[in-house]
Amino acid sequence: MSVFAIPTNRIIDTAVISASNEIYAAKEYINEDIKLVIVDNSTSSILEHNTKFLKDFSNISHMKIMHLTLENQIKIIKEISIISGVELDELMDLLLPKGCDYGRISNMIYLIVTMLGSDVFFRRDSDCNVRKIPKDQYPILQEVKYLGKKINTVKKHLSNSIIADSFGKEEILVVGGDYFGEWNLDVKDLKDRDENIIRNLVKLNDIEEALIDDYIEVKYSEMINKNAEKPVLISVYNQKGPNKFLSKEIHRYPECGNISMKDVFKWIPSFVGLNGIAFDYNTQQLSSFLKVPILYHCNKINHDYDNGRKEIEALKPYWKGIIKQNDLSLLTTKFSHKLFDKLSFNNKISNFNQMKKLANKDIPDFFEESFYSISTKERIDRIDALINDVLLSSKIDKYKVIAEYLSENKFDILDELNNDYHKSVKLHRLWPKIMEASTYVLKKGMLLK
Known about the structure:
Strand order of the largest sheet: 3-2-1-4-9-6-10-8
Number of strands: 11
Largest sheet: 8 strands, mixed
Order of helices and strands: EHEHEHHHEEHHHEEHHHEEHEEHHHHH
Shape: globular
Helix content: 40-55%
Strand content: 5-15%
Number of domains: 1
Distance between the termini: 16 Å
């Protein structure tokens, strides 16, 4: 059995109908049960609507749907605490989704999938759907085609088959794609004003100059990148040898609302922190750094834009999240080079097995060492670059207000980030124990209907 997971804090109708279409399409190609799971952290009024809709939809479609409310999630964490021996208060602090915390939401999905006894999940966010997308272009069809397959058996279908040779018989453990639509909030405003502003923003994510135009084409264009009409095997390693390190190819990382994973999530959790944009990309990023195969496909999904987030008060936490994203990028860049210095790749141990070996000690150790190697000046300079070279350079009035807010609060944001990193490192150390306990939640019969 595999799991199709939709996390939500909004009305779920369109996303569930879309998910059912994808699930039925996938079943034409695989003889396997796919369980639809809704992880719901909505307000009481939206939760009431979702509960009624899911009951009605299940009756009409005869599709079994698991609907996990915040109350259910608290029960799961309590069971994990009892089984693992980790203090409940500590687990609630690390695991319970609260506010806009992308990492905790992802980690809750990982827990639930493991609790259900599955090694595989497909994830769509509740603002994503396949409306007006032809059935043969549904993302799930690429996912079931490639997830879990050995590289050497599918390399002829890839656009970069030469790089595939360096992976041998490794299994593809992450498969995903991108979005259609104005999903990147006010980045579109900035791009329309001056594309150089977007370049300045992208640089703050440690994208090399030579890759910036490609990144913009992939992320901010409705068109499919012509260089990626076939699936792309993501690698941070040169095809000439495993010790030739390249830059992070984050322009090719699948988006978390259009992704599937096998096994890796049981070893690498997401970072946690309020408004932590890109904190939920940690699992796939570290998989890439550890040379675990990730496949980026071209079956994009619609991502609906939330007009309510154009207001100044909604934009403040968004741009605070961008600061967090840029700071985390600085940390992971340092981490990746430290990790690479310590690693050696050979055919005697699979890269996934190496991940398991490093998961709960070496990886959090490297994150801590990387964090302490970064000066406060480096971090403040990066915030100032966002304020001056992106927001103020736009000469758009609302961004002047945002810039002033960020400037006044930048040291508080760094303090908050320090706390986020402390908790995330602690979570990395506990994660294998938490995952093991999750499997026993199922065995104890605490399977929520």
